[in-house]
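Submission sheet (multi-component)
Chains listed below:
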Amino acid sequence: MTTETPVSRAARKKQELRREIVETAFDCFAERGYHATGIADIAARLGIGHGTFYRYFQNKRDIVDHVITDLVEKVVAALAADNAPDAVNSLAEYRRQSARIGDALARIFGGDPRMARFLLLEAAGIDAEMRERVLDFYETAAELTAGYLHHGVRLGYLHEDLDVDSTARAINGMILASILSELRDPSPERQAAMSRAVRRVMYDGIAAPS
Amino acid sequence: MTTETPVSRAARKKQELRREIVETAFDCFAERGYHATGIADIAARLGIGHGTFYRYFQNKRDIVDHVITDLVEKVVAALAADNAPDAVNSLAEYRRQSARIGDALARIFGGDPRMARFLLLEAAGIDAEMRERVLDFYETAAELTAGYLHHGVRLGYLHEDLDVDSTARAINGMILASILSELRDPSPERQAAMSRAVRRVMYDGIAAPS
Amino acid sequence: MTTETPVSRAARKKQELRREIVETAFDCFAERGYHATGIADIAARLGIGHGTFYRYFQNKRDIVDHVITDLVEKVVAALAADNAPDAVNSLAEYRRQSARIGDALARIFGGDPRMARFLLLEAAGIDAEMRERVLDFYETAAELTAGYLHHGVRLGYLHEDLDVDSTARAINGMILASILSELRDPSPERQAAMSRAVRRVMYDGIAAPS
Amino acid sequence: MTTETPVSRAARKKQELRREIVETAFDCFAERGYHATGIADIAARLGIGHGTFYRYFQNKRDIVDHVITDLVEKVVAALAADNAPDAVNSLAEYRRQSARIGDALARIFGGDPRMARFLLLEAAGIDAEMRERVLDFYETAAELTAGYLHHGVRLGYLHEDLDVDSTARAINGMILASILSELRDPSPERQAAMSRAVRRVMYDGIAAPS
DNA sequence: GATGAATGAGGGTTCATTCAT
DNA sequence: TATGAATGAACCCTCATTCAT
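Outcome: structure written.
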């Protein structure tokens, strides 16, 4: 028997449209690029007047900020789910966890190549501020990864003298390379191969056993 | 006593201006971004009429292609110099070679952060075609790196069952991360730390010795 | 024990809001100008929905007409009060009366410089129709002044061959100049000086006694 | 045998178009008002592309500033011509001079009623800055008139205790009234009557000889 | 009656490109 | 060959007005 006041219903509808605009804007930006997309394109695809757009977002620059926020949140949420750094007690468990994380990333970025294209390739070219946001994102990701490494060092299953911060960046670089490679060859085989290679390098390096 | 016909002198001058335009275009693109840069800006900075620009390049899109070509060539040239894959015969030599390559990259990208900013962050956002060119560049770089790995596998100082292609991408990802991290913190210390971390992961991985 | 039907009470409230809208519209127009003021600004300042505005006035153009009507009425009312043209019987009395009228004008326009700004400077620029209304206002004022002059001529304390109509306009021009000068320098001293100068020119002219 | 370099010819043509744009802008503003006039209207009437407009003026606000400057200059030039304040030595000469000035004003404003309409009625409503410019113009005019009065006081043909500054404003107010009255009734008779009335008030006042 | 969400006409402005000189 | 004046497509954004709730 959940009743709803007319006011809250209207508010909900407003939120819904807001979300739809963000999603449609992402669609447009991903398809034709930020600069080639007009506000009118977004509005037309949604079937709303383009003046309506401006009731929900300040201007074109505003919407792309929200699109990016959305994407970053999705990525971070997917990574954080069931993957607490301190839920791991051994190298074997860490291997399993990193495989899970790799799967999650594959699911997110593999499921919609437009995400990687826009977040990792397009966005930084929008303007200087957005470039910094993208670099911020990399920074955040590095801190996340560093958390895992730190835990491993403390528990002794990772090199005790690991430069946690720099190594985290290096590992994230490999993950980035995976995602980028997927843009060219989205086949599951290639993805599996990349994933294996990354983990192999990550844990054991490339040097042959002496 | 090398003389030059007036014709060839004029041709040389034309080539010179062409090059100057490419360089100045890069300056502008790197400073304000591709979309925020007008043809008039480039021409004004060069002190030429902006109509003249169109005598050297088809259109705005044309010039950025040449700028990218220029940058890619510079990077590839710097990497190839004195670093033939088959000049190495042992892991120790490879370590030294990869250190040299790292230094070369640091010199190129560290010397002018605009290069990394434009080639790695801005360019892919220009349009779909340019995005593919950037991905091509990554691909070429992967092939380059794969050459080194292949040689190492053949000579036995790298894991014999290495997935050369995927591993090359992974390693390049770490290099990419190095360069990106430099954009945020260009201090030599951070760069040295990143370089060390990359090579450590690359050769030995992060796992503690069992 | 005056009772009021609900109907008339509602009607009275409507009239009250109507008046408030006109006043608030004047506030906005005077502060930011007609063109820079949006209906939403007026409504927001009143704390009503901007749709409500259209239940009281046809459109934006409609409200400014009412604002002007309001202002003109205020000015005319202030001038007419206790200043009947035929209440005067001599030059001395006319001098006193014109001083009183000057004071009344000073009170109205000096009390709120926005009135002069809007009615005398802004309004005529709104559109052709409003320009004519402003000129109508000047015309009405000229007729008013002419009434006083006519009376003076008839009673003999003003030049018998006075071109009443044209002279009325000329005098009103001096008054207009007074009000405009107040916009730049609202000090009482300047106003008093202007008032004295106007009356001196008006009665005696500037020529030195021969 | 005046030859002209191609450069200077082009420069002259540019100046010419610049002037034409100012004139056409004035035409449009005077006919339909500043706010109702679009840049496209001005360009279309001139038969040029509307982008061309922006090669000559920064923006819409810029052009109206030039239009006003133009008008003010025309008025000031017409007033200053052959009417130096110190060229007068007696009241009779001053009367003749002020008649000449009146004629000059009549020629300027009477010749093109749009000038008065735009400068005196429209302009001040454009925005706060323009309003101040119009008030500046009145101020300048007051100083001009004050110069004449000052001279008359010094030579003794005007009241020795004249408040020169305030009186100048008052007189200018009468002139303003003349010009405004012309907008409603442009007949030469009315203008002549106004002119006579102004001068009569100015020199002798309205009071009957005691 | 009151509201404010939706609308789209309209206008200012930019800038890549052309072409006559 | 170099130039820069001219052009107009394109686009962002505002805001008066309507109308369903």
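Remark: The two ends of chain C are 72 Å apart (CA to CA).
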